[in-house]
Specification:
- With 356 residues, the protein is of the alpha+beta class.
- It is 36% helix and 28% strand.
- It contains 9 helices and 20 strands.
- The strands form 6 sheets. A 6-stranded mixed sheet has the order 6-1-5-16-19-20. Strands 7, 8, 9, 10, 11 and 14 form a 6-stranded antiparallel sheet that branches.
- Strand 12 and strand 13 form a beta hairpin.
- The longest helix is centred in the N-terminal third of the chain and has 39 residues.
- The N and C termini lie far apart (92 Å).
- Its EC number is 3.4.21.53.
- This is endopeptidase La.
- Belongs to the peptidase S16 family.
- It comes from Mycobacterium branderi.
- Pfam families: Lon_C (PF05362), PDZ_2 (PF13180).
Length: 356
């Protein structure tokens, strides 16, 4: 009887252990399932946060970020850093929660970054095109501020097209068949008198090269009845030297202001930044108007982390920027390139620039 009682107790203990194991397994199943969901399931959100900054007065990969060849440039000091926003797509649920809890990242619906109907590749190409346009606008704004005269300037050469291999982006067009042209309106009026198949001589100036001329046989374009030269042109300030911007994999137009300031700084005596670490952001038009950008707070955080003490803010971003001021970071309001230059002079001389 005693042995049977001991065996019964042992059976009870084994059964109790089995029930505990089963309970543990049942409890672990949703935990494991949730862990799998965190790792595997992606969310329709993109994370935005502080990105890298680049000193437009410095070098990247052994090249000057703003490289000017063919004219005298002047030494610069301090920093004029452009700022960026980092972007992460294809986030798992776990990654999204981790980034959100960090407090440093912002989760936005993916459709705001990659609109429906457009692939990621299409959006990236559009951003890269915006960045290249910002480089051109930055050059024109800087040259306009420095009072270089305007010319009929080649913005792009069609490929294929009648002018391919004969004219280049950046050429200044001075005459058509010997008739001088001072602006795009005069240039276009002369072309409207031509016919497809007709040959014309274009007198041009090329950066870092002597003036030249090109004999071009005009093509046909279904959008017009006159001869097709195969170039897009605009009235823009023109200089005989070349300005190149050597940054890759940076999309969007928000570097325009800082690029323009670097050009002005290198082409003039004195230092815009002095000994200051200045960072900033803002689009810019060819006329020098500074426009608003997205992600201003992320860019401010990136600038402060890099060591900046002064941050240039587009006037229309001032409200958002001032709502999240960072200790030790002076916010300077700018609306035009000229105002930005004046504000930097005030900063370096101990004056009071416009602030947010």
């Amino acid at each position: 009887m005693i042995r049977r009682h001991a065996e019964g107790e042992r059976d009870l203990r084994v059964g109790d252990v089995n029930r505990r194991i089963l309970t543990l397994i049942v409890a672990l199943v949703p935990i494991v399932a949730f862990g799998v969901l965190l790792a595997v399931v992606t969310v329709p959100y993109v994370s935005l946060g502080p990105g890298p900054t680049f000193d437009t007065l410095g070098e990247v990969d052994g090249k000057q970020v703003v490289d000017i060849e063919g004219t005298q440039t002047h030494p610069t000091t301090g920093h004029l850093n452009m700022t960026t926003v980092s972007q992460r797509d294809g986030l798992s649920l776990g990654e999204a929660l981790t980034l959100w809890l960090s407090g440093q990242e912002q989760l936005v619906p993916r459709d705001l970054v990659y609109p429906p109907g457009k692939s990621r590749d299409e959006v990236d190409k559009a951003n890269n095109a915006d960045f290249r346009q910002s480089e051109d606008s930055a050059e024109y704004a800087a040259l306009g501020y420095l009072k270089y005269p305007q010319a009929v300037t080649v913005a792009a050469v069609s490929d294929p097209g009648p002018s391919k291999g004969k004219l280049r982006d950046g050429d200044a067009l001075d005459a058509v068949d010997g008739t001088p042209v001072a602006n795009v309106e005069q240039f276009t009026s002369l072309l409207k008198k031509t016919k497809p198949g007709q040959s014309v001589t274009i007198d041009f100036r090329r950066k870092n090269a002597p003036p030249g001329n090109a004999r071009i046989t005009l093509g046909a374009n279904p959008d017009r009845g006159y001869g097709f030269l195969g170039v897009s042109v605009l009235d823009a300030p023109w200089a005989p030297f070349a300005i190149d911007f050597n940054l890759a994999n940076v999309g969007g137009p928000s570097a325009g202001l800082m690029f323009s300031l670097a050009v002005v700084d290198k082409l003039t005596t004195g230092d815009l930044a002095g000994s200051k670490f200045v960072a900033g952001t803002g689009t810019i038009t060819a006329e020098g108007k500074v426009g608003p950008i997205g992600g201003i707070v992320h860019k401010m955080n990136a600038a402060r982390a890099a060591g900046a003490t002064v941050f240039l803010v587009p006037a229309k971003n001032c409200y958002e920027a001032s709502s999240d001021k960072l200790p030790g970071l002076q916010l300077v309001k700018v609306d035009t390139l000229g105002q930005a230059v004046d504000a930097l002079h005030a900063v370096t001389s101990g004056g009071q620039p416009p602030s947010c």
